[in-house]
Amino acid sequence: RSYSSGTKKVTLIPGDGIGPEISAAVQKIFTAANVPIEWEAVDVTPVRVSVVIPPSGIISSTCHFKSKLSAIGFEAHGRLTTGGNYGRLGRLANIMRMSDGLFLRCVRDMAQKFPEIQFEEKYLDTVCLNMVQNPGKYDVLVMPNLYGDILSDMCAGLVGGLGLTPSGNMGLNGALFESVHGTAPDIAGKDLANPTALLLSAVMMLRHMELNTYADKIERAAFETIKEGKYLTGDLGGRAKCSEFTNEICAKL
Ligand code: ATP
Ligand code: MG
């Protein structure tokens, strides 16, 4: 909002799980760096609803599935053979023809409009293999949500885990920045979370808002802290609390 001059207002959604602790860490670091931002915190904590499916429901749908397969003479020997998602939505191997087909057509159309951008189509299994063996092969990857969800977690694992990876969604009228990880309920409320993912998301936001000097300064302090290795959180093999790691970054700033 109003990226032009003076103090900018940013909506902050701490969420649940480790959200509040890592949000507080980011706010503290931003204060230490004197970032000209005014936070507007919004509580959108969802009410978790659990749906109980009666056993009979599960059984009848399983039977339905099996009878359908036997009707077309299909012998089931486990998931891969029965198709899983592929069986219902796709036809061949590692692509969902129905849903991916539309996606692919749209991307090809778009690629034609921008011939100056080199365009290449790859199957997801190939991308996974290459990503592990030679990640430098790729630059920008475009794919449907489910594939991106899985691949981004794999990439996070390659560079040190979910505690490190930021993300950003840029639109025409605004942008949203968030860590790639979820609520990490197993470590929530214990001051154990690594706030780097959210911090780097916030750094990405600063660059989007053209506050590059602040972005560079904060990023440098965070990277130095990680490189020194004295105040690492558990996910990076250290023993420091989220607050200790945060304080070290603030001290550097
Ligand atoms: P959700 O349903 O909200 O996605 P989840 O159970 O899938 O929650 P994730 O947040 O996706 O949990 O985390 C997966 C694993 O990675 C958990 O063991 C969690 O503790 C760890 N993890 C995630 N984020 C962080 C973080 N910032 N710092 C340290 N560990 C993390
Ligand atoms: Mg998750």
Automatic annotation (TrEMBL):
GO BP of this protein: isocitrate metabolic process; tricarboxylic acid cycle
Record-annotated membrane-spanning stretches: none
Top-level EC class: oxidoreductase
Assigned GO CC terms: mitochondrion
InterPro entries referenced in this protein's UniProt entry, alphabetically: IsoCit/isopropylmalate_DH_CS, IsoPropMal-DH-like_dom
EC number, UniProt record: 1.1.1.41
Pfam short name (any one): Iso_dh
Domain Isopropylmalate dehydrogenase-like: 9-249
Tagged with keyword Oxidoreductase: yes
Keywords: Oxidoreductase, Tricarboxylic acid cycle
Molecular-function GO terms, alphabetical: isocitrate dehydrogenase (NAD+) activity; magnesium ion binding; NAD binding
Protein family per UniProt: Belongs to the isocitrate and isopropylmalate dehydrogenases family.
Protein name: isocitrate dehydrogenase (NAD(+))
Gene behind the chain: Dyak\GE17383
